[in-house]
Amino acid sequence: MYRIISKQEPAANIFTMVVEAPRVAKNCLPGQFIILRVDEEGERIPLTICDYDRTAGTITIVFQIVGATSLRLSELNVGDELADFVGPLGKPSEFCETPVEELKKKSILFVAGGVGTAPVYPQVKWLKEQGVPSDVIIGAKNKSFVILEEEMKAVAANVYVTTDDGSYGRSGMVTKCIEDLIAEGKHYDVCVAIGPMIMMKFCALTTKKYGIKTVVSMNPIMVDGTGMCGGCRLMVGGEVKFACVDGPEFDGHLVDFDQAMKRSAQYKTAEGRAYLKEQEGNTHHGGCGNCGGDK
Amino acid sequence: MADPMKKVPVREQDPKERATNFKEVCLGYNAEEAVMEAQRCLSCKKPLCVQGCPVNIDIPGFISYVKTGEFDKAYAVISKSSSLPSVCGRVCPQERQCEGRCIRGIKGESIAIGKLERFVGDTARVEGWAPSTEVESNNHKVAVIGSGPAGLTCAGDLAKLGYSVTIFEALHKPGGVLVYGIPEFRLPKDGVVIPEIENIKKLGVKIETNVIVGKSVTIDQLINDEGYEAVFVGSGAGLPKFMGIPGEQANGVFSANEYLTRSNLMKAYDTESDTPIMRAKCVAVVGGGNVAMDAARTALRLGAETHIVYRRSEAELPARAEEVHHAKEEGIIFDLLCNPEEILVDENGWVSGIRCVRMELGEPDASGRRSPVEIPGSQFVIDVDMVIMALGTSPNPLLTSTTKGLEVNRRGGLIINEESCMTTKDGVFAGGDAVTGAATVILAMGAGKAAAKGIDEYLSKKNS
User: Fold this and answer.
1) Which residue of B has its CA nearest to A238?
2) Which of A211, A215, A225, B53 lies deepest, with the highest CB count within 10 Å?
3) Based on the domain organization, do A213 and A225 belong to the same domain?
4) Domain residues for A22?
């Protein structure tokens, strides 16, 4: 079960894996996520579904090394098996519930930030399959972090790449790109922004100025992902929502991003320590008084 | 000769020592102590204890075999009614069930039925006895959703009747609340829970983990595509409740579900685990049930000064008497008749304290419990850096939102026919917390048992 069928590293420290998970592949839709455990001691981590193949019974995930678990995941190879892989979790994208005729009347813009390009892809692909065109902005730190550009071009009407340092495509943050496109005469009814929380926050602030309805996909701390632990709670329009059962997609103009970002930092020190332990093994004992690792 | 009016005392880990480890608190009886305790049983002709047991174990029957040292026969008697004796002996609220009805309890102390059941279950495990597995298959398939106490009991009973049963479990380990909810120091996982689940598997029950029914597969797909003729929903309770007071979204505020799942299921108390858990200096646990006690005693073991904050008085604490007693022995501070008003938050968004108001008991409310009333101006602050909310749960919408025809009551619990345990959807049965809201392990087991009977009757009728 949960065998790795293929593995690639499209950018430094960003990996794509195709994993055998027939039950997930049979019923998943764009917008949903999975939870996996690398091995018996592993923690449960949520990852958004990047692609699926119902016939082959496989799911594609994309992840970036950010801690001990993603590092261990990146060390697995084709043929290896994951301990656990469960899903699909969360609600499908709102598009999946909207009649196609309605969708065709809308002009849709996707804004993908970094590794957030992965969860944007299945939505754009799904819309194309329904005959609905959409535009995509892919934002990255620099040229080497742009992923899925070719795949996206195959399914989107227009793809605009922008890099923070201007090393590829347009220059500047995604918010600048949104403003530029509108200045160039583009009009959008709906925006879907997926990426780092800080990016989604500023995207939502930008689109608000233009009155564009904006959907964001939240990826907070969670344990079970089935509505049991409440760790993924966030405030949306003054109400407590659980990302795992009420989301992960929410109205970007109603999400309290500042609080969500604070909550996401809750285990930062603990995660950092686990990462160091994984990388440095026995060399990291703490107590040397220099690094503060024992504090 | 021991005093026949008193229970044979049970050996426990010293409170000071156990407050720093996760090993089991109660060490249980040895054979000699069990026989001595069993001999206090009057073997009543009309045993009230049996009526007090949600799964109607023949209590005088098994105790009479303990008296004579025939522990294997005692195990066979319990096995007729329960597949989880080592679990129930540890976690049932006996004082409100079997032991609460015991005639011995009128003038002295009731028989320690729970401790005897535990002794028999543990002995069976050590000796390798398992329930008899010779059953002829009837080739009818039943799906069970959830591998907690309700699901395990329902599956075990159906397997004994010859059904081909598959349990679907959403998490990566089977056991439900026995694994994610109840801590190791009260219910050892490798030592007790896993072997009892293995016994149920020996009856032919298959368990598929990592399947969230309603998401990975729907109930309709199980029936139409996978050939299951009946489905039992034992999916447990759901989303944790919060109070809705200011500061609840601060860093350092957790639901008891999250805190306990991290510690129990993910073993975050062990530094070898990848899953992080916050180790606080001082913790307030809000609530007075078993879950609150479990969370508080876990926080204590992880090194925190721990307070239970509960708005009623000690008499109203819903937790088992033994858990309250153990919690006090270990040094948990009980702030009773106190209600939180606000969680105080520092400039970085972390918990810095909890402001409470003192309460007094007023008139009895609808449930018969005296309802607490605020004492004006009695506010005070407890300096804590973590708050755990143990206020119960509200139903999980995951299954009902993806299954047509499953109706819920106004509290969100699944509606079932009391007699057959069938939901409003034909061929779909339910029991346990998914129906009642958060309750106990043994009540869920009783519900699983009743549903197994209902499913057998339904399928027998349908296939005749």
Assistant:
1) B244
2) A225
3) no
4) 2-89
